[in-house]
Design brief:
Order of helices and strands: HHHEEHHEE
Shape: elongated
Number of domains: 1
Strand order of the largest sheet: 1-2
Number of strands: 4
Number of helices: 5
Helix content: 40-55%
Length: 144
């Protein structure tokens, strides 16, 4: 199939289960995810690592979905959240999305969260785990 943009090279046989060939063979397939070449993936990981705010995170989530069709789910895990490891970060599997990319995106987000813990607080607050007490400048209730 001829596509009007450069696409990601196929992974070595047996190394990935991205179903790239099935996606290319499907005339109705959503090929947006194949735009994520290895070079573009490096740029994406770098951009995700440099997130500076919760609003920036939400903006990137929207852009990932709009431009590449990648759906991200970030939520507190069922257990306690004591570190960024307590967050559940999942990238929905879809045809054409490489396994390595699905691992690289959450790892980059965790690095950003470790560098900017206020993003994690805002994320927890968006799930109402802090009861609205956290604001960008700090805690809004005395005693915290």
């Amino acid at each position: 199939m001829n596509v009007p943009f450069p696409i990601r090279k196929e992974c070595p046989p047996g190394a990935c289960v991205c179903d790239r060939e099935l996606l290319l063979a499907d005339p109705q397939g959503d090929l947006r995810v194949l735009r994520l070449t290895k070079e573009e993936e490096k740029r994406l990981v770098s951009r995700l690592e440099s997130l500076a705010s919760f609003e920036d995170l939400k903006h990137m989530e929207g852009r990932l979905q709009a431009q590449l069709g990648i759906v991200l789910h970030i939520s507190p895990s069922a257990n306690e959240v004591r570190t960024v490891r307590g967050l559940s970060i999942e990238v929905e599997a879809r045809p054409g999305l490489c396994r390595k990319t699905r691992d690289a995106i959450p790892a980059a987000l965790r690095r950003a969260f470790e560098n900017h813990p206020h993003i994690v607080y805002a994320l927890l607050d968006s799930h109402d785990l802090l009861g609205g007490a956290w604001q960008a400048g700090g805690w809004s209730r005395p005693g915290f």
